[in-house]
Amino acid sequence: MLPLRRPFAIKVLPSGALASVDDRERFYREAKSGAQLHHPNITSVFEIDEAMPGECRPVV
Predict the structure, then answer these.
(1) What percent of the chain has pLDDT over 90?
(2) What's the maximum distance between 2 C-alpha atoms anywhere in the chain?
(3) Within 10 A of 7 (CB to CB), how many other CB atoms are there?
(4) CB contact burial 9-33 (16+ within 10 A = b; e otherwise)
(5) Are the beta carbons of 50 and 11 closer than 8 angstroms?
(6) What are phi and psi of 36, to 5 degrees?
């Protein structure tokens, strides 16, 4: 991996925040919409993923 030396943010939702199928679908729709935005005052969305309960994954 090549370090890009740029700021980034990681959004971590609390356990159970996407408990229903409707909540999960809405979250994915919002992420896809956000990925289309390009503005200096809006954080870009590059990737979205889910971890299984109890799973720990490094995020780069």
Answers:
(1) 8
(2) 37
(3) 6
(4) eeeeeeeeebeeeeeeeebeeeeee
(5) no
(6) -85, -15
Q: How far apart are CA 58 and CA 24, in angstroms?
A: 22
pLDDT tens per residue across all 60 residues of the chain: 567 787 777 777 877 777 888 988 888 898 899 889 999 888 888 888 777 666 655 444
CB 31 within 8 A of CB 45: yes
**Structure-token match 């990681």, residue found:** 10
The token pair that represents 34 in the structure block: 């956000």
Chain position carrying tokens 């199928």: 21
